[in-house]
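**User:**
Everyone, produce one record:

**Assistant:**
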Amino acid sequence: MNRIILISHNRLAEGMKRAVEMIAGPQANLECLGLMPGEQPDALIDSFKQTIQPEQNIIILADIVGGSMCNAAMALLPLPNVRIIGGMNLALVLEVVLATPQTEAEIQHVIESASQNMHEVQLVANQEQEEDFF
């Protein structure tokens, strides 16, 4: 069984889950965990750790590499069935949900694929259309 866990500061993970399910439909294996003001990231991760079963493949997507939630989740890396990917964005979450990567190569592929979706959006005039306009 695969579990995909979105972790973030505040409700970003919750919003990301809702956005993914708006596009891809309900996802039984997609969960979210947000650090709210006054909470401790280590306590949230420790609580989550209690739910991990050895037969589960866990992919954790964190909002910020080096952020408090990502750093706290690193305590789970000694478990052989846990992987963490930092720098969560909607393209990455969709890739992980739809492809359910298992191997190191598959994880690298979804990271590369999601990163290719990052571009500055610009308006570019089409010279041919402008000349035909009048």
User: Anything to note?
Assistant: The radius of gyration is 18 Å. The beta strands are 2-9, 30-35, 57-62, 82-86. The mean pLDDT is 92. The chain has six helices and four strands.
